[in-house]
Specification:
Helix content is 47%, strand content 18%. It is of the alpha/beta class. Keywords: Signal.
Length: 343
């Protein structure tokens, strides 16, 4: 009888053990099927991570697209993103960064108004143990995890060559400059002016407009009073060309591409409004700065970071691509993507 009872107990124990092992295997297979990866890897570690996005100014279509793209990517990876708009005010951004650091987010996405003035804020974030992922404005410090930006210098060079060719390498060309201290504006201006030295019969007149269309409007009116042989203009963003167009209308000098007296216009960014002007024959070209890709890549790297993968490069520059009448309808251009969403 004792032997029989012992055998029964042994069989019960074995049955329970086998069932437990089979249950664990089934649970593991379900996680892999649902997520594609086991719980020890993949996107699960990004779930609920808090991201503070400190952007230079949402008054620009470029920054709106970058913001939309980064938020969409954050949502896809289960991250919660809170956005702070500095409204192109460096002091305001410094205050925002101070407040952000105090809330101890898991990471910060930063587009600096002024690359030099933001350095103390970036260092404070690093000292607080908060990794900073930089976009757009090239950092002047090393206190960041990774940067995804744009070859602004090359964009300036490309604009200079384009304008010089179209105007026959002579005349006065206006430079609609972005904000001094913003590395994007500084590098575009440097690339443009250095390349224009190849063309000794072209005179460059720089107008400091701080990215703002209204300033471009008034400064362009003044420039046409002072200079009688203006043949073209390079704008550090497409937005300022809105002011240039208004000025040319007021002066009765707005002519379409290939019309006599046309003022050659080249911008940067590839905004929806810029693309529309190219279609209408008002603006000649724009150097595309892919806001959608920039926001996406930077935020994807955050997800990689949270998953323990830091194999991404420290610095990445997206290449400028010339947009003119030949490719303005490309549906993959971020400006067209944004315009289609508004319809």
């Amino acid at each position: 009888m004792k032997k029989l009872l012992g055998l029964i107990v042994l069989l019960v124990v074995l049955t329970f053990t086998l069932s437990a092992c089979g249950g664990e295997k089934t649970s593991s297979n379900t996680k892999e099927d649902n997520n594609g990866k086991s719980s020890s890897s993949g996107g699960e570690s990004t779930e609920g991570k808090r991201v503070s996005s400190a952007l230079m100014g949402l008054g620009f279509e470029f920054m709106v697209m970058l913001n939309d793209s980064s938020k969409e990517t954050a949502k896809e990876n289960g991250m919660d993103m809170q956005v702070f708009d500095a409204n192109t005010d460096a002091d305001n951004q410094a205050t925002q960064m101070q407040n952000i650091i105090a809330t101890k987010p898991d990471t910060i996405l930063l587009s600096a108004v002024d690359a030099k003035l933001i350095i103390p804020s970036a260092k404070a974030a690093k000292n607080a143990g908060i990794p900073v992922f930089r976009v757009e404005s090239k950092p002047l410090d090393e206190d960041y995890e990774t940067w995804v930006g744009y070859d602004n210098y090359k964009a300036g060079e490309m604009a200079a060559d384009y304008i010089a060719k179209v105007v026959g390498e002579k005349g006065t060309v206006l430079e609609q400059r972005g904000m001094v201290g913003a590395t994007g504006a500084d590098l575009r201006s440097e690339g443009f002016n250095k390349r224009m030295k190849k063309y000794p019969n072209i005179k460059v007149v720089t107008l400091n407009n701080e990215w703002v269309a209204d300033k471009a409007f008034s400064n362009t009116l003044d420039a046409f009073t002072a200079h009688k042989d203006i043949v073209g203009t390079f704008s550090a963003n497409d937005e300022m060309l809105r002011g240039v167009v208004s000025a040319l209308k007021k002066l009765d000098k707005l002519k379409k591409v290939e019309e006599s007296g046309h003022i050659v216009m080249v911008g940067v960014d590839g905004t929806p409004l810029g693309l529309e002007r190219i279609r209408d024959g008002i603006q000649d070209a724009s150097l595309n700065q892919d806001a959608k890709e920039m926001g996406k890549v930077a935020t994807e790297r955050m997800a990689m970071y949270f998953n323990g993968d830091t194999s991404y490069p420290k610095d990445t520059m997206l290449e400028p691509v010339l947009i003119d009448k030949n490719n303005v309808d490309d549906p993959n251009l971020w400006g067209n993507v944004m315009a289609s969403k508004k319809k």
